[in-house]
# Entry
Amino acid sequence: MNPQESRKLARARKLYHELNLEGACNEYRSIFGGHSIEVCCDSVEDFSLFIRCLYELDYQEELKSYQEKLRAVPEKNRNPNLSYQLALSYLTHDLGSINQAIQCFEKLLFETREPNLVARAKMGLATCHDMQSGDWRVCGSIINSIEGDGLQPYLKDLTEIWRAKIFRDSGQLDEAEKLIGKTLAKIQSHFHWHAYLSAKVILGGIYFKQERFNQLLEVIKEVRSYCDQHPLSTIRRQINYLADQIRGYQTSIPLVLEKSERLSVLRYEDRSLVLTGEKPWQKLLSCLIQEKILPKKEIIRKIYHRNYRPKSDDRLIYGHLSVLKKNLLKLGISQKLIAKDSRGYRWIPEVAEIEEKVK
# Structure
């Protein structure tokens, strides 16, 4: 890489760490698009970041193009850096390519002693076995063989996250939580979003196994807030999978109400309703969630701060309920969650409420 390209690489890295993935992707594309795949792979860290951008942005066609280029290089011409990218391409292609990925990673470990590349290869190999068999003992033996000397901080963090995952999967939940807590504290001092969010997903899995659902919902809320602001396709899939685990385990808490000083957000799976309180149906929903049962008199008093007038207000209340139920359908939940009985209108499901600290 010439000096101008080196400056562009530094700019792309900065954009990546700022979570401007589209900007980083464009910078990387302008550099790597003008070089052979062999030259691209020599910049192992930057090319890996570029491929990560493509995955998070869900640029499948471009990913496929690079995968085909990697596989077209004759084996005799592959250096360790290219072999690593090739192994990754098999790992992320489909489950049928896992054995090819394992062969590439194992072969690479005989070809290089460079500590950072060895660590990357071992984590890739552990990922293969985790996807293939879920055997934490095999994964543990691979990860525990990674030596920390000479590792980049990011790779050290990923290694510790892996160790916490192995503790979690083996049932050593206290050890897992302690390790992931220490790792998160370190990551926050030299923030790297991928390591941070990966650690949060592992922490969420620990909370799930401990049945600490309130803490788990906090994790889901935080990670989803990143995914709402940035195009993080792989992270979103991981946190949605975790949310699915909650729904399958305890159906009483799929609804989450995130509250701040300015507005509230009602979430169900990966959908959300923003409640600013400016519209009558939003006020009605907030009151129903809070009070559980509302007579007509209370609905009018809470929305309009006046007394109930039966002749005109019955139609008004019915209109607000109709709009509210249409919005519940958009959220993906049944409008039958609001029932009518002798006491008034009743909100049926449980809602986990989370207070957001507004900075």
Notes: The first helix runs from residue 3 to 17. The chain has a mean pLDDT of 86. The radius of gyration is 25 Å. The first strand starts at residue 255 and ends at 259.
